[in-house]
Write a structure and sequence with these properties.
- The structure is a single chain.
- The protein has helices at residues 2-19, 27-57.
- By secondary structure, it is mainly alpha-helical.
- The chain has one domain.
- The radius of gyration is 16 Å and the shape is elongated.
């Protein structure tokens, strides 16, 4: 449940980054920044889900 909410927050943040109306700068730079942000957000989400899965499969880790 906790992992799910964290993932939801992640997705919300990701959508925010994508939908946020940025000041019309150089479109190429904007696209590059968006791609970088997406990659970072995805990596973070993946990290959350993998650690969450470890917690679920190895209950003792929850005490840490």
């Amino acid at each position: 449940r906790q992992v799910q909410s964290a993932l939801d927050r992640c997705i919300d943040r990701f959508e925010q980054c994508v939908n946020e109306p940025n000041k019309p700068q150089s479109l190429q730079r904007l696209r590059r920044e968006a791609a970088w942000q997406a990659e970072r957000t995805y990596a973070f989400c993946h990290f959350l889900t993998s650690t969450g899965r470890m917690m679920i499969t190895n209950p003792p880790l929850q005490h840490v």
